[in-house]
Amino acid sequence: MDSVVQRVVQPVVQPVVALVDVVAVLGSFPALAGASLSVNRGEILLLRGPNGAGKTSLLRLCAGLLPVERGTATVLGCDLVADRTSVRNRVGLLGHSNGLYADLTVADNVRFWGATVGASQHEIDASLTRMGLANRLADVQVAKLSAGQRRRTALACLVARRAELWLLDEPHAGLDATGRDDLDVTLRSAAAAGATVIVASHELERAGALATRVVEVVGGQVRQVAE
Amino acid sequence: MDSVVQRVVQPVVQPVVALVDVVAVLGSFPALAGASLSVNRGEILLLRGPNGAGKTSLLRLCAGLLPVERGTATVLGCDLVADRTSVRNRVGLLGHSNGLYADLTVADNVRFWGATVGASQHEIDASLTRMGLANRLADVQVAKLSAGQRRRTALACLVARRAELWLLDEPHAGLDATGRDDLDVTLRSAAAAGATVIVASHELERAGALATRVVEVVGGQVRQVAE
Amino acid sequence: MTGFMTSTTSPAPSDRAPTSTTFSRALGTAALVGIGWLIVFGLFLSPNDRVQKKGVRILYLHVPSAWLAYLAFIVTAISSAAYLSKRTRSLTWDRLAGASAEVGVLFMGITLLTGSLWGRISWGVYWVWDSRVTTTAFLFVTYLGYLAVRGLGGTHHQRARRSAVVALLSVLEIPLVHFSVEWWRPLHQQESIANGKLSGLMLFSLFIGVVVFTLMYVWLVLHRQRLLAMQDALDDHGLEFAIAERREEAVF
Amino acid sequence: MNTWRIARLVAAKDLRVEWRSRVVLNQVLPFAALVMVMFAFALDNDTVLTRVAPGLVWLATMFSLLVIVQRAFAVETADGALDALQVAGVRLGGIFLGKAIALAAQLAVLELMLLAAAIVLYKTEVVADGIVLLVTTFVAATTGLAFVGTLYGGLAAGAKGRETLLPLLMLPVVAPVLIGATRATEAALGTENATPSDGWPWIGLLTLFAVVFGVGGTLAFGSLIDE
Amino acid sequence: MNTWRIARLVAAKDLRVEWRSRVVLNQVLPFAALVMVMFAFALDNDTVLTRVAPGLVWLATMFSLLVIVQRAFAVETADGALDALQVAGVRLGGIFLGKAIALAAQLAVLELMLLAAAIVLYKTEVVADGIVLLVTTFVAATTGLAFVGTLYGGLAAGAKGRETLLPLLMLPVVAPVLIGATRATEAALGTENATPSDGWPWIGLLTLFAVVFGVGGTLAFGSLIDE
Ligand code: HEM
Ligand SMILES: Nc1ncnc2c1ncn2[C@@H]1O[C@H](COP(=O)(O)OP(=O)(O)OP(=O)(O)O)[C@@H](O)[C@H]1O
Ligand SMILES: Nc1ncnc2c1ncn2[C@@H]1O[C@H](COP(=O)(O)OP(=O)(O)OP(=O)(O)O)[C@@H](O)[C@H]1O
Ligand SMILES: [Mg+2]
Ligand SMILES: [Mg+2]
User: Fold this and answer.
1) At residue C51, does pLDDT exceed 80?
2) Per-residue pLDDT band at E44 (split at 50, 70, 90)
3) Contact A61, A22 (CB under 8 A)
4) Which ligand is nearest to the CA of B178?
5) Which is more confidently placed, C8 or E201?
6) What is the CA(E68)–ligand 1 centre distance, in A?
7) Region for residue B66 given its phi and psi (left: phi exceeds 0; alpha: psi -120 to 50; beta: otherwise)
8) Of D215, D70, D219, whose CA–CA distance to D157 is shortest?
9) Strand, helix or coil at A169?
10) Which domains does chain A have, with CATH numbers?
11) Nearest CB to E79 within list A100, A112, A115
């Protein structure tokens, strides 16, 4: 099963994510207003905080999708200020939307995203099994799936990408009981295999149990939370 | 505050929702395969069950969006088999997607949906306040909102519609702590004012605490759950 | 899926349920014989035209196919209306509409084909931007669209409602085609038959052509309609299994 | 609430969407202008141009119509608002009329611009006594086009790959309008020394067309978009 | 992984989407055919027609191109797959090439059909020694169009109201192709007794165009779709 996360990660000295006083704007609005955060390898970090606080923006920034306006940001040793695209092929992002091709089948989708990192057929199947999709659903068009089944597919695609840094935006939302368990197992084993995981979620009990550390995002800033 | 749910509901003798052995198909797939359910006025019913079980289909059927293939279905006294559109103006549905106009502002959206039932400006404002949107957000384009803020807007639109039967698909997903509280308060007061509420959700603790009764949807059928 | 109304009535298809009956067989034979007659009269007995020479013989295919295509589309419209009216609502009407439209498209195709061949002979070109020729092409495409709409999916009754509306709107193009020649750019033959510009024998051959095409039309529609009925029945039959399978999910 | 109020509501909403997004103004109008220029390019031959100018005006209108209709229903389907509308029990006839009105308003602006462009680009001059005919033509044609566009736009809105199904359905149906409007315009502009009197018969066709689709649409829209 | 493998991956994916949805086949091809008929219809004069037939072929190609490109990027943006692609670190140059290849394949089919239609409808006949020129023209033009289409399609994909922004961006740029291809085709078909030798200079223009946008696109695509 671990084959899906077996990409070798050379030990890094500095933290995987190191943000200092980061400002990032959407349109004219500073979604991040001086956020500082440091995440070490193997951590599972939970971002909580009110709606519109900046969690999604933070994740997108770490994925190199959102430019850094001010401050310094280093992810997986890449300086995002200098070139935010440099980090991309090594992170995996699951946003609010799934990023699936509705006309293709579940298997097609996972195969495509797996192929972008040269995953083998065996790894593809492993990813499908991980999210409980290795059944009749594998060959159903995504357009026909239920909301939760789509979320599972998106997660399977993420697993197949074997990233070093996993960024997930409300991964539990829409998943049923078994789906949530599958997810937690997957994230834990990914972290155990040396990947780093950052989860933004409003389901504090569930995600809190999963996380090794919790921080709160408020008003575009990151606030430490006492255990 | 109750003004938003003050539409007078004349007492109904038969249950608000009465489904008997209902079959409904999506494409060629029987999403509902002999579902029977009866819901009384003032209840808050929780639908739980695995992904793809048929919860969304059940809600859409009650809203008159999904035709009844076999069996009998009566909602708010309207026979859906004879004419599934007859019930529509009296139910409110919040699906997985929000059904908002991204180019319009939050207030525009709530005003439009309120207007479809002739809601007054005061009722519109009340709905906005209910979901904590009576602030700078009221005049922001929906396209610019965060996921949770959109969900709040969709809920505000639903409140403004003052339906007799509320159908909600995972209403808690994406909402922050205060949002969830606002939601629960809203639904409780709606039920207290004589509306009926059916919620499909995977957050069993949260939704379970809210609900007055729980049923499980599995394989397109409804199964009673022992307390 | 068929709605509750017909799902009970439509028979479970057995593997050797034929689409033909003694009647339709008789019809088919009659059509074949008729074709023989048409060949005899059309190609040999009927005289050459003064202007058109042998070319005129295309008339016996060209015109009947056109008229029968009209008829087919009108039948489609009527049965669509029958479906839409609450009292007579039944998927049988919908299937009839579908079958008739399919045959109509086929015949309109024949008209276009023979027409353009004839055009090559008498105008020297396959295609002209004559009003009737073009409107015919549009009519043809419109019903292709109609068939596309039938293929959109959804339940059988959704299919029926949608396509019925389209059929009722599309049929309005027929007068456009018929009268277009009077309206502008008349290059195509004007009303020549109605105002008896044809010799007796020509008229008779044309008559045979019309009869033959009518027979073929009825025969084709009967079979297509039965085939569609079987497909729908098959869906219902499949639904039984699908439901059973779906209920299995609940066991675990 | 009655069909007419719904229509006003929907029309107002659509126009407000346009007001906030400015898409038709900033993008479709220039597009139409471009199409005219392109035609001029493709058949760079003044005598030919002036001769076919009326036809080209209406061709360009037709293509712009396609774009506007697509946009009008993209707005509805993007976030499942069409579902919401149906559930809101908003009378579908009302939606039809409302969207048709908004569409007609936008088309009218467009056509005026195209005519102006034609007069400039193709050096067609308007003869005084043709004005009345010209105006009548534009009114009748615009109404007809708006109705057809809304009707088939709604039909295609439900379908997969809608952006491409629409043209297939619409173009053959609007062909008569194309003919009628072109001939009438020619008559009005005195192209090939046609006289206004030649034009009036065509107005009959255009009006008939508008009436048929107006009535048909108001009655049938429901069954078309009802999924 | 290298740009070229990505390109193959993306192209294969796009063609598979078309294979599963059949949208271009079932809807765009008929649309293109219709456009031809409409033109012929609006122009409505045989001598004019044969004269401008080559121009019309390319005009129709252009409009179909718009539709196909729109579809190609609707697929990417519908569920935020474009974001996912960027994060997947899929080299953007690779995406560009891949989508361009798939687009060119579909365009080629389309043009063949249009040419056939033109020959029948407009009575243009192909002279033997023009064949080579004709083929070269189609190859050069198709490549150019595919590149431009992909480039601006990607640019518009990010923008609001993209379905209408695209034509505006693209048409002016493809105008040179329109002219060049038209003239070259005229030469090949001997319209207005032009001889093939007149055509070759235009091929130069077309090739230059293709090269510029091919190189430019591969380099600039990233910065374009990166918001
Ligand atoms: C592609 C080209 C053509 C098409 C699409 C076409 C189409 C049609 C159609 C639809 C009709 C039925 C008219 C009605 O009764 O409403 C018709 C009738 C007829 N066509 Fe053609 N036609 C074409 C070419 C020709 C040519 C080249 C000729 C001969 C020169 C021709 C001769 C006739 C005649 C004589 C009739 C019967 C007219 C009457 O009395 O109603 N057609 N054609
Ligand atoms: N153009 C804009 N103008 C004004 N405000 C904007 C604009 N774009 C984004 N915003 C605001 O930026 C914030 C985006 O935050 P983000 O999406 O990261 O929140 P989040 O923490 O993910 O919230 P949620 O929990 O709801 O997902 C929101 O408050 C939104 O209102
Ligand atoms: N055309 C189709 N072919 C096959 N299966 C289909 C088709 N359309 C829908 N389905 C199936 O029908 C079911 C739809 O169920 P529904 O969306 O109601 O589930 P749900 O209970 O809402 O699930 P979730 O909790 O994930 O939202 C899914 O299992 C889906 O796979
Ligand atoms: Mg968020
Ligand atoms: Mg659901």
Assistant:
1) no
2) low
3) yes
4) 2
5) E201
6) 36
7) beta
8) D70
9) strand
10) 11-224 (3.40.50.300)
11) A100
Provide the 8-state DSSP code for D22.
-
* Residue to probe by mutation, ligand 1, list C188, C191, C203, C207, most atoms within 8 Å of CB: C188
Please write down the long-range contacts of B2-6, taking CB distance under 8 Å and 24 or more positions apart. Answer: B2/B189, B2/B193, B3/B122, B3/B123, B3/B126, B4/B123, B4/B126, B4/B127, B4/B130, B4/B159, B4/B160, B4/B162, B5/B159, B5/B162, B5/B189, B5/B190, B5/B193, B5/B195, B6/B162, B6/B193
Mutational pocket test of ligand 3: of A105, A141, A149, the residue with most ligand atoms within 8 Å of the beta carbon: A149
Ligand 1 mean position, distance from CA D145 (Å): 29
* Binding partners of C (≥3 Cβ pairs within 8 A): B, D, E
- Three-class SS of B54-94: CHHHHHHHHCCCCCCCEEEEEECCEECCCCCCCCHHHEEEE
Band of residue C3 on the pLDDT scale cut at 50, 70, 90 = very low
Q: What is the pLDDT of residues C184-239, one digit of tens each?
A: 555 566 666 666 666 777 788 888 888 888 999 999 999 898 888 888 888 778 88
**How far apart (Å, rounded) are the C-alpha atoms in residues B191 and B207?**
15
Q: Are E27 and D165 in contact (CB under 8 A)?
A: yes
Residue of E nearest to D54 (CA): E42
pLDDT band at C13 (very low <50, low <70, confident <90, very high): very low
Question: What ipTM was predicted for this assembly?
Answer: 0.83
E199: its two tokens: 């055509």
A147: which DSSP letter?
H
**HEC assignment per residue over E99-163:** HHHHHHHHHHHHHHHHHHHHHHHCCCCCCHHHHHHHHHHHHHHHHHHHHHHHHHHHHHHHCCCHH
Write out the two tokens for D113. 């611009």
Tens digits of per-residue pLDDT, E98-136? Answer: 999 999 999 998 888 888 877 776 666 666 777 888 888
At A80, give phi and psi (nearest 5°).
-70, -25
Instruction: Give kind and range of the element (H or E) at residue D223.
Output: helix D196-225
Distance from C-alpha of D141 to C-alpha of D147, rounded to nearest angstrom: 10
Q: Which two tokens stand for residue C250?
A: 């609940």
- Residue whose CA lies nearest to ligand 3 atom number 1: B27
Q: Which residue is closest in CA terms to ligand 2's atom 3?
A: A29
CB pair distance less than 8 Å for C172 and D212: yes
Report d(CA D161, CA D142) in Å as an integer. Answer: 27
Q: Does E17 touch chain A (CB under 8 A)?
A: yes
CB neighbour list of residue B151: distance below 8 Å, 6 or more residues apart: B98, B171, B173, B174, B175, B179
